[in-house]
Amino acid sequence: MKSRFLTVTLTAATLFGAGQFQQAQAQDVKMGLIDFARMQRQFYRTDSEREQFEAQRTEERNKVEERKAKLKELIQQQQTAQKELGDATLSEAKKKSIMDEAMERQGQITSAQREILELETRLNKELADKANEIQRSLTKEIYEVIGKVAESKGLDVVFNRTFGINGVPTVAFSKASDALPDFTDEVVAELNKGAPAGWKPPADTE
Question: 181 with 30: CB under 8 angstroms?
């Protein structure tokens, strides 16, 4: 989940190829750089949303494990019944009672297996949808702040150091890119204005 949770899909409007980069330079357009991946890692909501998501996932997985535990118990009871039927000293009446109970229990086992499969399928879809919803929300808020800070700095175009089409950096190489202002820290500071008291961004090791 974590890797899925941190995967970012950028909108086409923010992706610029080498030709557009050169055209912007030729027109003396004011450009800037940001590191989207670092922004997201250091955004307090990324931590809080992940914690809530993990708590929800754990809760849902516990529901599945409870069902599986009951299923395991039924299967063990079937195995015990099978051994009892091998006892030559059992009366016919006792054998019939054990077999009747085993047949009823087998129906419960089949039903439990089906319910567990359906529950896992539903929960996996719900969790995947939730992860996508969280990512869209984080991306939207981060891009809104990027635009706000970029406008305040009088920038016309902003390039991303990290993710681009299919995970390839938008600016793979440019002699000019090192001279462009990187205002990632300013965006991170703006994003974290509403952070809980005492919250600190994770150490940036990536």
Answer: no
- Name the nearest CA neighbour of 201 among 44, 20, 10, 5: 44
User: What is the distance between the alpha carbons of residues 164 and 181, in angstroms, rounded to a whole number?
Assistant: 19
Using CA atoms, how far apart are residues 181 and 204, in angstroms rounded to an integer? 20
Q: Tell me the CA distances in angstroms from 159 to 17, 35, 171, 189, one per residue in order.
A: 10, 9, 7, 19
Phi-psi region of 166 (alpha: psi -120 to 50; beta: other; left: phi over 0): left
Tokens of 109: 């086992």
Crossing angle of the two packed helices 92-152 and 184-191, in degrees rounded to 10: 120
Q: Which amino acid is at 174?
A: S
What stretches of the chain adopt beta strand conformation (E)? Answer: 31-34, 157-160
Whole-model pTM? 0.70
Phi-psi region of 67 (alpha: psi -120 to 50; beta: other; left: phi over 0): alpha
How many Cβ atoms are within 10 Å of 108's Cβ, its own excluded? 14
Question: Which tens digit of pLDDT belongs to each residue from 2-17?
Answer: 433 333 333 333 444 4
